[in-house]
């Protein structure tokens, strides 16, 4: 079992390592096993380092054609504020340490966060349009098909 922690800032893990067993098999040259503790300490380290805080800048949003006009069609208050379509900037922030749980054939990631949506004005300043809190629960299953590792992602909620 391994532990992951932020570089130069080891404060101890908020988790306790639980014992686990690896089934005895001898038909392959290499076996890898990762504990839930490894994934949880990784999540803690990345959260502490701010790795789950992402800013999706104007250039990326314009590539996907996300603007105040799109949000205005969904949220009437945005349409009232922004008559002229402006590009947007999104700031995604994890508000709690993501929880990773191992299951029989997959693992589940639960993450809570917030999203701030800004209009990028012609003078390059930003104006906050709205903030949204969100929670996501995702299952990820890994399988090997034709000697290739294939993952499937399912958004549970």
TrEMBL record:
Entry keywords, A to Z: Antibiotic, Antimicrobial, Disulfide bond, Glycoprotein, Immunity, Innate immunity, Secreted, Signal
Gene3D superfamilies xrefs: Bactericidal permeability-increasing protein, domain 2
GO molecular function: lipid binding
Intracellular or extracellular location(s): Secreted
Any one GO cellular component localisation term in the record: extracellular space
InterPro entries tied to this protein: Bactericidal_perm-incr_a/b_dom, BPI/LBP/Plunc, Lipid-bd_serum_glycop_C
GO biological process: one example: defense response to Gram-negative bacterium
Keyword Membrane attributed: no
Cross-referenced SMART domains: BPI2
Residue ranges occupied by any Lipid-binding serum glycoprotein C-terminal domain in the UniProt entry: 24-157
SUPFAM superfamilies: Bactericidal permeability-increasing protein, BPI (SSF55394)
Stated role: The cytotoxic action of BPI is limited to many species of Gram-negative bacteria; this specificity may be explained by a strong affinity of the very basic N-terminal half for the negatively charged lipopolysaccharides that are unique to the Gram-negative bacterial outer envelope.
Quaternary state and interactors: Monomer. Homodimer; disulfide-linked.
Entry's free-text remark on domains: The N- and C-terminal barrels adopt an identical fold despite having only 13% of conserved residues. The N-terminal region may be exposed to the interior of the granule, whereas the C-terminal portion may be embedded in the membrane. During phagocytosis and degranulation, proteases may be released and activated and cleave BPI at the junction of the N- and C-terminal portions of the molecule, providing controlled release of the N-terminal antibacterial fragment when bacteria are ingested.
Protein name in UniProt: Bactericidal permeability-increasing protein
Lineage: Eukaryota, Metazoa, Chordata, Craniata, Vertebrata
């Amino acid at each position: 079992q391994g532990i992951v922690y932020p570089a130069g800032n080891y404060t101890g893990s908020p988790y306790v390592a639980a014992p686990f067993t690896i089934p005895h098999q001898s038909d392959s040259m290499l076996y890898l096993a990762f504990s839930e503790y490894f994934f949880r300490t990784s999540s803690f380290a990345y959260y502490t380092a701010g790795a789950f805080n992402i800013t999706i800048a104007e250039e990326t949003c314009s590539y996907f054609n996300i603007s105040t006009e799109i949000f205005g069609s969904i949220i009437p208050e945005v349409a009232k504020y922004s008559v002229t379509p402006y590009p947007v900037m999104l700031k995604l922030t994890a508000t709690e340490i993501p929880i990773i749980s191992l299951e029989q054939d997959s693992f589940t990631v639960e993450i809570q966060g917030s999203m701030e949506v800004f209009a990028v004005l012609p003078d390059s300043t930003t104006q906050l349009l709205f903030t949204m809190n969100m929670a996501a629960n995702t299952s990820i299953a890994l399988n090997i098909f034709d000697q290739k590792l294939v993952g499937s992602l399912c958004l549970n909620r």
